Amino acid sequence: MKLATYLTDSGQRLGVVDAEQSVIFDPYAASSAQAGGRDERLRTMEALITAGPDALADLRLLAVAGTSQDDFTTPLSEVRLLAPLPVPAQFRDCSVFERHIRDGAAGMARVSARFQGRSPPEPVSGDGVPAVYRQLPVYYISNRFNVVGPDAEIVWPGYSKIMDFELEIAAVIGQGGRNIDASRAAGHIFGYTIFNDFSARDRQSVEMTGWLGPAKGKSFDGGNAFGPWIVTPDELGDYRDLKVCVKVNGEEWIRTDMRGMLHGFEEIIAYISCDETLHPAEIIASGTVGGCCGLELDRFLANGDIIELDVDRIGILRNTVRMSGDN
């Protein structure tokens, strides 16, 4: 299933998307026709996820019959989609793609040199991937409140002039747990969505010298864009063979796939849950798919650009970037 969050007169609502028919089904309203009355588990995405597997099973049964009922469906063109999980319980972002780790570091060195008025550095010998990235699925914790959805306008922070994007895949945790074995980790994933990790590269290039990871380089209002919906694992299939594409103002910048992960989501979940409890409705992002950011392409966004992240079997996450006027 494709599950979305959209805005109604009564607030946020969970919806089941029929992409072929371009309609969205309201399971909460449809549940009013059932004997038990409206099912509060089906009101929002967070309520559905935290209610557990039984709620998802009941939603499937309701959706099979409901998507053909006009009383509970609305054309997608008539609704405003929000981030599928507007305020995740927690949000972590990893870096597990070998190509991005290698080429992103070289790109950051270029940006830093330009920012400081120096000549670009010479290429570094070796494979350019620090050993720790092969040993562990390195991650940082980001701001779960800086979340926006599809078609949102991202107002660039006034302290930055270098606007960049990052195409990532994010896993949404459905079942919590602690010390989860990698062999069982797939069962803890509720679904997958697209993540655009907007990045202020000039600020990030300075902050990364402090050895604490990105701060204001990635933490600003609207910096975390998710969408257009969450796709359940049974419909998505194997995330490792997803095809991805980035377009800016309709021009294709890169087309590639998800190959090259040093660690899969199963290993990531096992590592994060080591002596730490994972909770339902947390989001874990993969890190940038190799080649899918301006830092690697040496090509950055401009004021007013429309960026589309297209991921096979999920959909398209589209956003616009604007300078704040203080840049």
From TrEMBL:
Which Pfam family is an annotated match for this chain, by its short name?
Answer: FAA_hydrolase
Q: Does the keyword Isomerase apply?
A: yes
Q: Tell me the keywords, alphabetical order.
A: Isomerase
Gene Ontology terms for molecular function: isomerase activity
Presence of the UniProt keyword Isomerase in the record: yes
Q: Which residues form the Fumarylacetoacetase-like C-terminal domain?
A: 135-322
Q: Which domain of life is it from?
A: Bacteria
TM stretches of this protein: none
Recorded hits in InterPro entries, A to Z, give: Fumarylacetoacetase-like_C, Fumarylacetoacetase_C_sf
Q: Where is the signal peptide?
A: none
Q: Name the Gene3D superfamilies for this protein.
A: Fumarylacetoacetase-like, C-terminal domain
Against PANTHER family, the record matches this protein to:
BLL6422 PROTEIN, FUMARYLACETOACETATE HYDROLASE
What is this protein identified as? Isomerase
